[in-house]
């Protein structure tokens, strides 16, 4: 599998957590993107709960043919991160 879609978008990094309690969830986010997911929400399904009791955030960095882009979303925010 490729980490890029047909438009050349590549997920370069994804993390989940808060403060210094974060985990690298690049691999599962890439798999979801390659499987067709384009809107990503923050939840413990990405890599467990790295900071119990705190509101966590999902952050994703991706590369497109025109340059890098990124997004961040907090738990309980249904808007999510839209990756093209």
> Mean of the pLDDT scores?
93
Number of helices: 1
End-to-end distance: 18 Å
Poorly predicted sequence stretches spanning 5 or more consecutive residues: 1-5
Q: How much β-strand is present in the residues?
A: 35-45%
Oligomer: single chain
Shape: elongated
- The ordered string of helix (H) and strand (E) elements is EEHEEEE
β-strand number: 6
Q: How would you classify the helix and strand content by structural class? A: mainly beta
Structural domain tally:
1
- Write down the Rg: 12 Å
Largest sheet: 4 strands, antiparallel
Record the strand order, biggest sheet.
2-1-4-5
Helicity, as a percent range: 10-25%
Could you characterize the architecture of this molecule?
- With 84 residues, the chain is mostly beta strands.
- The chain has one domain (10-82).
- The protein is 11% helix and 39% strand.
- The protein contains one helix and six strands.
- It has one helix at 26-34; strands at 10-18, 21-24, 39-40, 57-64, 67-74, 81-82.
- A four-stranded antiparallel beta sheet has the order 2-1-4-5. It has a two-stranded antiparallel sheet with strand order 3-6.
- The longest helix is centred in the middle third of the chain and has 9 residues, at 26-34.
- It is elongated and about 40 Å long.
- The two termini are 18 Å apart.
List descriptors.
84 residues; mainly beta; 1 helix; two-stranded antiparallel ribbon
Briefly say what this structure is.
The chain has 84 residues and is mostly beta strands.
Summarize the SSE layout with pairings:
Elements: E1 10-18, E2 21-24, H1 26-34, E3 39-40, E4 57-64, E5 67-74, E6 81-82
